[in-house]
Write a structure and sequence with these properties.
- This protein is mainly beta.
- The protein folds into two domains: about 80 residues, no CATH class; about 220 residues, no CATH class.
- About 5% of the residues lie in helices and about 35% in strands.
- It is built from one helix and 26 strands.
- The chain has an eight-stranded antiparallel beta sheet, covered by helices on one side. A five-stranded antiparallel beta sheet has the order 12-26-13-24-25, with no helix packed on it.
- A hairpin with a 5-residue loop joins β5 and β6.
- The radius of gyration is 19 Å and the shape is globular.
Length: about 350
């Protein structure tokens, strides 16, 4: 079985772009700047992609694992369908760093679509920025409250963060500033000085320590050891929902076995069903981010300088340029890295 990589066409509005996923049975190639991408090959161990530069040298880089689902064709027969990832950052002239996929999660109602994004951490800087209200009241400088102009040339993606501090007290550390102390036991996305990123249950004290560049906490872990955590059965513990509905828009951030990040958002989700989405996306650990219809958002860009922003989560409550001006809530931004431990633009 082979999964193809294709160039994604950009549009100014989301309805014309849904759905993006489809199964490919043929082999194709896509040119990315001076790099010719090979084929996604499915195996039981890992997914790899070989790239060949103009110098004819080759090396293996990390790429996302397709989501393969075994579907019943009849009472006695079934077949497997694999959903491919689409490379989103072909304009940057480098190996794939951000990839996108839409799929129907197994076990969920007809018509439900999960919108997923994969981020190769070895080639990126994950930045965290306060908004003018979120994460909460502080006497510290909030910084740009938007994507800083110094980072626009390297900007690959932006996406929503977690809850307000008043709704769920949690640690928030970025740009050498501890806005809110770390809380033991909470799910935490951490970027370290060696350039790696982790999602973990925080076991340290209130201060992040000298090896941490960025840390954002939100509730307990949603997924651990590739399984939903036991607490996901208690839906009330995973945030106040609009009109008290149990199943609402939810978003989450996970990490795969290779240390790459996976973002996902979907409508009509409980905590347990969102955890199942992250497991289907091959996350070994995951944390819930923001919930309810107003907040989930993932944006990619058609070129440098944040040109051609596109909503990759088709949320009618959001606009593509949201984080290019002052943002109400805090958010994450993904930049091309210039080397391990590269500080986030500020």
């Amino acid at each position: 079985m082979k999964i193809s990589v294709r160039r994604r066409h950009r549009h100014s509005s989301w309805p014309a772009r849904v759905p993006r996923w489809r199964l490919r049975a043929t082999v194709s190639r896509a040119l990315v700047g001076t790099v010719s991408l090979g084929v996604f090959a499915v195996s039981s161990d890992a997914i790899s992609l070989t790239s060949r530069a103009s110098s004819s040298t080759s090396h293996v880089v990390s790429v996302p694992t397709p989501v393969c689902q075994r579907l019943a064709a009849s009472a006695t027969k079934s077949h497997t369908v694999c959903h491919a990832w689409t490379v989103a950052d072909t304009w940057a002239g480098h190996e794939p760093v951000v990839a996108l996929m839409n799929f129907h999660p197994l076990g969920q109602a007809a018509g439900v679509v999960a919108y997923a994004s994969w981020i190769r951490t070895a080639a990126t800087v994950l930045g965290l920025y306060p908004g003018y209200e979120g994460p909460g009241t502080t006497n510290y400088s909030r910084g740009p409250e938007a994507v800083p102009s110094a980072g626009l040339a390297r900007l690959l993606a932006t996406f929503n963060s977690g809850f307000y501090e008043k709704d769920a007290p949690a640690g928030f550390f970025t740009n050498h500033t501890l806005y809110f102390p770390m809380v033991k036991g909470l799910a935490t996305v951490v970027r370290y000085t060696n350039g790696t990123v982790g999602i973990t249950q925080w076991e340290g004290g209130p201060n992040p320590g000298p090896t941490v560049l960025m840390a954002r906490q939100n509730l307990p872990l949603l997924v651990n050891d590739s399984l939903p955590t036991s607490g996901t059965v208690h839906n009330f513990a995973w945030g106040l929902t609009l009109y008290g509905a149990p199943a609402v828009w939810r978003s989450a951030l996970g990490i795969d076995k290779n240390g790459n990040l996976i973002y996902a958002a979907a409508p009509a989700q409980t905590a347990a069903s969102m955890a199942s989405v992250m497991v289907q996306l091959h996350c070994v650990r995951a944390m819930e981010l923001d919930i309810n219809p107003e907040w989930p958002i993932f944006v990619t860009y058609a070129g440098p300088g944040a040109r051609g922003p596109a909503l990759d989560v088709p949320n009618p409550n959001q606009i593509p340029g949201r984080f290019l001006y002052y943002s109400t809530k805090d958010f994450f931004a993904v930049f091309l890295s210039r080397g391990p431990g590269d500080p986030q633009p500020w």
